[in-house]
Amino acid sequence: MIRPVAFASLFVVIVAAGGPARAGAQELEHSALIPADPEVVTGTLENGLAYYIHENDEPENRTELRLVVNAGSILEDDDQLGLAHFVEHMAFNGTENFEKQALIDYLEGIGMRFGPHINAYTSFDETVYMLRVPMDDPEILSTAMQILVDWAGGVLFDPEEVDKERGVVVEEWRGRRGGMARIQDQQMPVIFYGSHYADRLPIGDPEILQSAPPEVLRRFYDDWYRPDLMAIVAVGDFDAAEMEAMIRDRFSVLGGPAEPRARGEFEVPVDHEPKVSIATDPEMPISQVSVLYKQERAPRSTVGDFRRARVRELYASMLNGRLDELAVQADPPFLQARVGGGGFVRGVDVSQFTAIVGEDGIMRGLDVLLTEAERVARHGFTESELEREKAALQRRYESRLAEAENRVSARLASRYVDVFLEGSPYPSVETEVELLGAVLPGITLDDTNAFAKEWLREQGRVVTVAGPEREGVGVPGDDAVTETFAEVAAREVDPYEAEEVADALLAELPGGGAVVSEEMLDEIGVTIWELDNGVRVVLKPTDFRDDEILFSATSPGGTSLAADEVLGHARLASELVSQGGVGDFDQIALDRQLADKRVSVFPSIGGLTEGIRGSASPQDLETALQLVYLRFVAPRKDETVFMAFLAQADMLANIGAQPQVAMQDTMAVVMGQGHPRAGQTFADQLADMRNADLDAAVEFYQDRFADASDFTFYFVGTFDVEEMRPMVETYLGGLPGDGREEMWVDHGVDPPSGVTEKVVRKGLEPQSQTSIVFAGDAEYTREGESAIRAMASILQIRLRELLREDLGGTYGVGVSGSLSYRPDEEYRVSIRFGSDPARVDELSAVAFEEIERLREHGPDEETVAKVRETQRRTKETDLQQNSYWLRQLSSRDERGLDLSEIPSYEAIDGWTAEQVQEAAAMYLRTDQYVKVVLLPEEGAEEGKEDAVDEDGASP
């Protein structure tokens, strides 16, 4: 896997992190070093290998292991472009103790799955291998450690395996090609001006990938996979002393070359003259302008460094708030704009403004971005802005402190990877809280305003413009872009005018209601209430997280109850109403009101249901319930925001130029047989946006939420049931409930009968996608649902082994299976893979051969056992997640299934080869499927733009 690099034609958004300020805290000495977390055990072996060990039981009975190699594509020789990544692939294809596919077979056999449990990535400067290991058997941990040892020093590079994997790596390269990749090809040399990085993208050169002999891969491995460039990270449910002893015992045997090559650092110039890169492409989905400022990596080791990072964070969040306001004007300058920053490549940080704009709005978008930055540089922020963002930052740290005992091991492991590679500090959460408490009260407008003046400069500046290449769509020249900076700098800019924030969401509390019935499901700790207005409430208190409550609500109906003439407006109703705010608060005012709270509440209207979803900190639950109440009784119609919404359609229009969209559209039309209520094409969605009627949308929304008597609410998280009662009775009990009885309507949207095959020709790259969907009528049963999912998992393993591992024909295969019970009982199994267009028929034939074999003979017991164990392991961790319980409670309750069976493993343990074969025979009918193949355009080199299916019609 290639780790994406943040660069200027991608959207870079700052992710805030922080901790609470304490009243009366004293400013610390800015030169003081930030202390390391004392719970982290660190050390270095005599051979130079470092290790980081941290006991952590979230999730329970799991350990995250990382092998970190301080070597990536930047170290490749000229004949090795892409081979750092190729070496990473070969680590899974034969080592001294695990020949060929034995390593994958073992890991899958103990319930580990590619992606969440087994993974790796290669970047410019590092390669990282990742395992999530079950801890209920000491032998598993021992074997996992042996795998890491083998990756560190025992990869074989068997010529036969290299040639098989060669196709996989080339297919990964192929799958990444497209409009954005071609834009990147043009802009990376400018972004990395004067640097070796521009010539060392991790994905590499396909010609070298196709021809490099095993000894050239071996040379990279021998040069750079050595203990003095490695670290082991272990975070999980174990004894730290025992883990340290195991690491010392296992990894001390590793040696390195007698004359090691120097691991140099590669400079990215940050003081060059301003640069501009303008690039277009027919498949570029959006127009975007970015202003990127490169600078040397800011130090992060002292209290002063921590303080400066918080000033930067506050600057970005305050300016982003202003940009959000501009995005909802009646004639917005951009769809979205952000200022952010952070690490770029080794030793280099970036600060960046980015805006997604209309096709002819590049210059206006750039002008507005620069004007807002200039406004802050000249006039600064307001006191209310700073206090609001400081309160929000403090609250984020309070939440982190509350969840200190529930930090997920995978996130901690990623942190220690960064510690090894970048020398980052790793204080405890408690220390971070102390640091923020010391520095936040002393941060003033003088600090943030001074930072704003530092931001705008010429040295190290790169402006990138990217957009569609289409007749009638113009792009500015380099000179016009450069002149905009001077024009804005010379212009008069007025100070920002801030609006006051109201005191409370609700002027007065609703009358409320009462719980009239109560049911206890003691075996799973669930309480069910019915209120006197008909609302049902299902409550599941947990101790998985200390600062999290998740909730949802659902009611039957959705857009299935919309008349044909208002269907398009109904589909947009929840989005348009959400953007308008609630009650007396527009969305901007609402965001300000909630800045220091951990709350989210969103309404939704789907095809068959309407509902609410949200989350809250326990201390903000009442605010969340107030928002729920307002979403029902006081939706807000905002004409200005609606005008901004209409403008979005033109900004998003070129999304339809992407080949994948053309393929998805064709599949949607075929599967729905052209029914107006089937899956929409992108053109349909765009037409709905352009023809939207705000009054009709709000009217439909109000009808769907006018009567709460058929709604069921589900709450999962940290709460006391009895403490919830008065809030539930007040806000949910206060919702209107007239006893309206209704149900969704089945409009007869069915998949086609027989076999349908389509070819879509769209795109300029030599790549294809194949999608096969088996669908039809089938009785819904819980056993059938379990069987079809097991069958899909088994088929995915087999197709991966055949199409990827044996034939080297694809980077990955996705298979999913489901049974639906509404509005009609149907099955659906979907298969998808990418490949060289020349191999589509070959790979499709192999896939159908395996399908037929599964139908006729069923799976082998070894594969069934793999899937059974994987599902068991997945469920073990799922049962420790609030989100899993919320999904299960709502989905099972809607279907009338026994909620007490949620923790049961009976369905998984009951899977047999016979059941899977029966499911394959029933659901993988080779006389009933739809197959859509995406191929490049005929004469793609001439730049043809129209997508056609095999009948010559646009999809």
CATH classification class of the largest domain: Alpha Beta
Report the count of strand segments.
23
Overall residue-averaged pLDDT value: 93
What is the rounded Rg? Answer: 29 Å
Give the N-to-C terminal Cα separation: 33 Å
Strand order of the biggest β-sheet:
12-13-14-18-15-17-16
Number of helices: 29
Low-confidence stretches: 4-26, 941-955
Strand content: 15-25%
Structural class: alpha+beta
Largest beta-sheet characterization = 7 strands, mixed
Q: Which of globular, elongated, flat, extended, rod-shaped describes the shape?
A: globular
Short characterization:
The chain has 29 helices and 23 strands. It is α+β, with helices and mostly antiparallel strands and 955 residues long.
Describe this structure in words.
The chain is of the alpha+beta class. The chain has 4 domains: about 40-250, Cytochrome Bc1 Complex, Chain A, domain 1, CATH 3.30.830; about 275-490, 2-Layer Sandwich (Cytochrome Bc1 Complex, Chain A, domain 1); about 515-730, Metalloenzyme, LuxS/M16 peptidase-like (Cytochrome Bc1 Complex, Chain A, domain 1); about 755-940, Metalloenzyme, LuxS/M16 peptidase-like (Cytochrome Bc1 Complex, Chain A, domain 1). About 40% of the residues lie in helices and about 20% in strands. The chain has 29 helices and 23 strands. The strands form 4 sheets. Strands 12-13-14-18-15-17-16 form a 7-stranded mixed sheet, with helices on both faces. Strands 1-2-6-3-5-4 form a 6-stranded mixed sheet, with helices on both faces. A hairpin with a 5-residue loop joins β21 (about 815-820) and β22. α3 packs parallel to α8, α9 (about 305-325) packs across α14 (about 445-455) and α16 (about 565-580) packs across α22. It starts with about 40 loop residues before the first strand and ends in a 20-residue tail after the last strand. Mean pLDDT is about 95; it is low at about 5-25 and about 940-955.
